[in-house]
Write a structure and sequence with these properties.
Layout: H1 10-16, H2 19-29, H3 34-41, H4 45-59, H5 64-74
Helix pairs in contact: 2-3, 2-4, 2-5, 3-4
Length: 76
């Protein structure tokens, strides 16, 4: 059995994410923790968690590494 990695279509992905979701994704991809991201965005840790869960659900990704790869592809 072989696995093929397929990158999401970047244009579609960028328009799928809300601006605050993109901002949260950018912070996480740069290495910030959920708490650091929350402080930078002026939100609670739970709100950041909700944004990131929504991103994972919208894009069908499961890990922080996949989110980071996506952020790089989007130029965030």
């Amino acid at each position: 059995m072989s696995l093929t990695l397929v990158a999401p279509h970047v244009e579609t992905t960028a328009t799928t994410l809300a601006p605050r979701e993109q901002e949260a994704l950018r912070h996480i991809a740069s290495g910030c923790t959920y708490l650091q991201t929350a402080r930078l965005m002026g939100l609670s840790k739970h709100t950041v968690d909700a944004y990131l869960r929504r991103i994972r659900a919208k894009l069908g990704i499961n890990t922080t590494a996949e989110m980071t790869r996506l952020a790089i592809a989007l130029g965030l």
